[in-house]
Amino acid sequence: MAKTLKQLEGDPRVESVHTEHDGWGETEAEMRRKSYWVYLHSGYICHVMECGTIHEKTVKKCWERMRYVEPIGGGE
Prior knowledge:
Strand content: 25-35%
Order of helices and strands: HEHEEEHE
Helix content: 25-40%
Number of helices: 3
Radius of gyration: 13 Å
Shape: globular
């Protein structure tokens, strides 16, 4: 089952989720769509993005990145 934006916003690792039209994307159609910015709570990092922020074009891709979110220091 696909996870929703509301579930993403409610994830305990997530501080906030914002959208903006930032002109970013791999295709012209993507560049016209809004992007999702997921800000993680202090103490968490997304190892794929190498920071505490996830930036993707779809909620599905944000959830894919959430698989790589861990406490900084590996849960110490």
